[in-house]
């Protein structure tokens, strides 16, 4: 999957005032270009409202970009959806699947697990006979550790635990033989002890099916687990942009962007900051309004390293895995940049931790 300079805007509903004023626009995603290689894992991380879900939905064709293009194997998926491409949209749709945060939402409460899983197979693989479909479903149920499979297949959703429902949601996505699965906070609702189990299962089945995952998480330690174990990538999002992208070893062990450092600091399992006398690597905990994002670098209002130039110029992300290049969208990643001559705007840098 390839995203070329993708932006998604939403008109913000401000009620009665809409009649009298111009509608405000939220740029939920702003100029994102990424590549999700085949059989690979990319995890998007960022604070609430930074655009992770919008970017995820845009990647799998559930949200139309307002600018830029999304390509599946070189085919523009929106051209295909509108019947203008060479590849039938049906094939693209089947190849791009989703697992929601709430597994219950993809299961009909009045149908057994088997009936719920039969439905998509009937729709997308009509050539398979009923016996083949049943066999395929039962073998996948077994594979996700729900045994005896027939017993689970005959159950209704209310007879399953949260973890089991999420496994069924994973089976539902995997039986389609997809190229990419969007896992949007798919493990957040599970008990901590079950999260690692679910991630391990996803990884194991990835090898079996040969699918890619675009995983969305607000938790940097889960992102690290998934990306490190699979040799995948982490993308850090801030106010609609990806500000850092690379393998877990680059992004988590040795972050470049001040925002990634702040996220790491805020993640207890990863934080290497000591309690005493340390200053927190962020100037403000308030997220700016997405309707009127700050000029220049969007993080400059919170960045402890911000200088005058950051308020005026917009830093670009530079990524080229083929060249092992992962430059964050931060002027500090460039040795030779006017940033280094620019004046400090932070009044001495970070806030003391005691002020949080
Ligand atoms: N359908 C919509 N209509 C209007 N605004 C929207 C719509 N969907 C998302 N937004 C806005 O776009 C921005 C990004 O939202 P999005 O849900 O993609 O963020 P997120 O990072 O996934 O957040 P969270 O982690 O809370 O789910 C937010 O400001 C949100 O209010």
From TrEMBL:
Example of a GO biological process term: peptide transport
UniProt KW keywords: ATP-binding, Nucleotide-binding, Transport
Protein name stated in the entry: Oligopeptide/dipeptide ABC transporter, ATPase subunit
Top-level taxonomic group: Archaea
Family matches, as SMART domains: AAA
UniProt keyword Repeat, yes or no: no
NCBIfam families: oligo_HPY
Keyword match Aminoacyl-tRNA synthetase: no
């Amino acid at each position: 999957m390839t995203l070329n300079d993708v932006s998604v805007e939403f008109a913000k509903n401000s009620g009665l005032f809409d009649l009298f004023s111009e509608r405000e626009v939220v740029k939920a995603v702003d100029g994102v270009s990424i590549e999700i290689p085949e059989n690979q894992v990319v995890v998007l991380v960022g604070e609430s409202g930074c655009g992770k879900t919008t970017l995820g939905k845009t990647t799998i064709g559930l949200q139309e970009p307002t600018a830029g293009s999304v390509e599946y194997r070189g085919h523009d998926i929106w051209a295909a959806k509108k019947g203008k491409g060479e590849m039938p949209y049906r094939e693209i749709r089947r190849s791009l699947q989703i697992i929601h945060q709430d597994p219950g939402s993809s299961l009909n409460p009045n149908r057994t697990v088997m009936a719920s899983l039969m439905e998509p197979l009937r729709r997308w693989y009509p050539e398979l006979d009923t016996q083949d479909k049943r066999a395929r479903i039962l073998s996948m149920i077994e594979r996700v550790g729900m045994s005896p499979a027939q017993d689970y297949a005959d159950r209704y959703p209310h007879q399953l635990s949260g973890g089991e429902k999420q496994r069924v949601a994973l089976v539902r996505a995997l039986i389609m033989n997809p190229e990419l699965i969007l896992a949007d906070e798919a493990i957040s609702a599970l008990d901590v002890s079950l999260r690692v189990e679910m991630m391990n299962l996803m990884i194991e089945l990835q090898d079996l099916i040969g699918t890619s995952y675009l995983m969305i998480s607000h938790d940097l330690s889960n992102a690290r687990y998934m990306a490190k174990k699979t040799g995948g990538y982490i993308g850090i999002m801030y106010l609609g942009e990806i500000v850092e992208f690379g393998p877990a070893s680059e992004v988590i062990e040795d972050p470049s962007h001040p925002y990634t450092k702040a996220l790491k600091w805020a993640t207890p399992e990863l934080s290497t900051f000591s309690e005493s006398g340390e200053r927190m690597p962020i100037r403000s905990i308030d997220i700016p309004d997405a309707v009127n994002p700050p000029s220049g670098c969007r993080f400059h209002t919170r960045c402890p390293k911000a200088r005058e130039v950051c308020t005026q110029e917009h830093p670009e992300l530079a990524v080229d895995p083929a060249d092992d290049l992962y430059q964050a969208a931060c002027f500090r990643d460039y040795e030779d940049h006017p940033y280094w001559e620019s004046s400090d705007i932070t009044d001495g840098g970070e806030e003391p931790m005691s002020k949080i």
